[in-house]
Amino acid sequence: MQQPPEIVTTKDLSYIQDALSWELLAAKKFGMYAQMAQEKAVKDICERLSRMHQNHYQRLLSHLDPSKAITGQRISQ
Fold first, then answer.
1. What is the pLDDT of residue 19?
2. Nearest to 47 by CA among 35, 65, 63
3. Which residue, of 8, 15, 61, 76, is most buried by count of CB atoms within 10 Å of its CB?
4. Sign of CA dihedral 14, 48, 51, 43
5. Tens digit of pLDDT for each residue in 29-72?
6. Alpha-helix residue ranges (DSSP H) falling in the chain
7. How many CA within 13 A on the CB side of residue 37?
8. Rounded to 5 degrees, what are φ and ψ at 65?
9. b/e for 33-51, b at 16 or more Cβ within 10 A?
10. DSSP character for 75?
11. What is the average pLDDT across 13-30?
């Protein structure tokens, strides 16, 4: 896997901020859908997707500042 560059340009930062926003929104939406779901299979899928997007969010965040990345915490809704 390639390492991120040492210097992040303003344009790179803008792309990463957009991606962070999208991942956070997706994690929150799937978390909400999981709470609303009445069928266990649907609830399980939504919870899995919420966790996946939370993981993506954390991975992107770690590229910005590895020392401040929070691992293992859930995103509040």
1. 96
2. 35
3. 61
4. positive
5. 999 999 999 999 999 999 999 999 999 999 988 877 756 555 54
6. 10-36, 40-64
7. 15
8. -155, 90
9. bbeeeeeeeeeeebbebbb
10. P
11. 95
Instruction: Indicate if the pLDDT at residue 8 is higher than 80.
Output: no
Place of tokens 């009445």: 38
Structure tokens at 4: 């991120």
Encoded tokens for 60? 């992107």
The domain limits of the chain are: 31-66
pTM: 0.74
Length of the chain: 77
Residue type, 28: K
Among 66, 54, 55, which residue's Cα sits nearest to residue 4? 66
Q: Which amino acid, 63?
A: H
